[in-house]
Amino acid sequence: MTDTLPRPRQVTMAAWIAVGASVLVVLTVFDTVAGLHTLETRRTIEQFLAEPPGVDLGLDVDGAIAVVRVLAMVAAGCATAAAVLGFHVLKRSKGARLALTIVAVPLFFAGMVVGGFLSSLVAASALVLWLEPSRDWFNGVRARTAPVPEPGPPAPEQRQAPPPYLSPHTPPPPPAGSGVVSPGPRAHEGFGTPQHRPVDGSTAPAAASAPVPWPPPVPREQERRPGAVVAACVLTWTLATLVAGLMLLTAAVVAAAPDLLFNELDKQNPDWQAQGVSRAGVEVATYVVVALTCLWAATAAVLGVLVWRRVVWARTALLASAATAGLVCLVAAIGSFVLVVPAVGCLLTASLLIRTEVRAWFARPRGPMHP
Fold first, then answer.
1. What domain of life (predicted)?
2. 201 in the Ramachandran plot: left (φ > 0), alpha (ψ -120 to 50) or beta?
C-alpha cells in the first residue's frame, strides 16, 4: 500500500530544483577554475589581499588561488553528489534525503566562491524535504483525509412539532395504564404530529433526535496549506536572504576597498570619469542601490510571511513584487548572465502564486489552518 502513495508536488519540485541547481554549480565551477590564472583574476586577488579584510588573512596570491581552487572543487564534488541524490529522492529514498541534507551544508559554504545563489537553492530544497507533506510521504503515511462530516439539521418533515400549548385550565394528563385518552389537541393536517403522539400510532413515545452542531465543521483537508504556497514562500525567503546578504557584502567591500569598484569601472568604461562622474558620486549611488535593494528584499520576506498566514492582499502584493523583480533581473542579465538565476526564481514564485489551488485556497473563508 505504501508503494502506491502519490508523490507530493513539494518533493518533486524540491528534488528537481536540487538537481538543476547542482548541475549549474558544476558548470560554474569549471568556468571559475579555468579563469583562476588569468591576469585579471590575479590583479583582483592582489588588490583584495592588499587591503582589509584580505590583508588579515595572511595569504599571498598563489595561496589565495589555491584556496579558491580547493573550495571550488569541493563545491563541484558536493554538487555532483547532490544531483545524483536528487534523482533517488524522487524514488522515496530516506537515505538519499538524509545524504542530500548532509551534502547541502558544505555545498552551501563552498559554493560562495561561485556566487552562492545556486548552492543556497540546494540547501533550501533539502529543507523542504523535511516539511509536511514531504515528511509523511517519506514515512509511508498516507495524506490525512477529511473526517466524515456530521449530519446537518434534520429535514423539515423529520422535525417534531413543538409541544402543545398548555394553559392553566388544561387538566393534567391521566396516569399511565388508566386507559383514559388524553384530551389534548388534535393533530391538524399540514402541521406535523404532536410530540405526545407517536407517528406510527403506537403507545411508545417518539425518540428525541440527538443535538446536531450547525454549521457543520470545515473538513481539515480544505484548510491545508497548498504545496505551491509553501514552495513560493520558501523561494521568496531564500531569494530575499541571498540578495540582501550579497548587497550588504557589496557595501562592505566598497567601504573597505573602494578601489575594487573603480578598477572594475575602468575595465568596463575607461572614460567614465571624463563623463562628469565623480568617485564620491559612484560610492553614494552604490549605497543608495544597496539600501533600496535590501528594503525591497525585506518587504518581500514580510509579504512571504503574510502569504503563509493566508492574508489575501499579501498574495497580490508578493505576486507583483516577484514579477517585477524577475523582469528587472532579466533586463539586467544582458550585462551579467548570473542574474538569469534570480530572474528564474522570481518568475517561478510568481507562477506558483497564480495556480488554481492557490487562488481557491485564498478565496475560501478563513478557518483554522494546518501545515
1. Bacteria
2. left
pTM of the model: 0.45
Closest residue by Cα to residue 233 from 73, 363, 345, 114: 345
Looking at the DSSP bridge assignments, the partners of residue 224 are: 370
In order of 50, 247, 271, 277, the CA distances from 281 in angstroms are 24, 18, 15, 7
pLDDT-derived band at 1 (thresholds 50, 70, 90) equals: very low
Q: Work out whether the CA dihedral 32, 36, 40, 44 comes out positive or negative.
A: positive
| CA distance linking residue 340 with residue 367, whole number of Å | 39
Give, rounded to a whole angstrom, the gap between the first and last alpha carbons of the chain: 24
User: Each residue of 96-108: pLDDT tens digit?
Assistant: 898 888 888 888 8
DSSP alpha helices (H): ranges in 114-155? 117-128, 134-138
Q: What is the DSSP string of 62-78?
A: HHHHHHHHHHHHHHHHH
What SS3 class is residue 171? Answer: coil
- DSSP code for 113: G
Q: What angle do CA 33, 112, 297 make, to 5 degrees?
A: 135
The pLDDT of residue 368 is above 90? no
Question: Phi and psi dihedrals of 149, rounded to 5?
Answer: -65, 140
What Rg value do the Cα atoms of the chain yield, rounded?
34
Q: DSSP letter string over 251-285?
A: HHHHHH-HHHHHHHHHHH-TTTGGGT--HHHHHHH
Banded pLDDT at 370 (limits 50, 70, 90):
very low
pLDDT digits (tens, 9 = 90+) for 255-287: 877 777 777 777 766 666 666 667 777 778 888
- Diameter of the chain measured on Cα atoms: 120
Candidate from 33-37, 191-195, 254-258 with smallest mean pLDDT:
191-195
CB 223 within 8 A of CB 365: no
Three-class secondary structure of residue 81 per DSSP:
helix
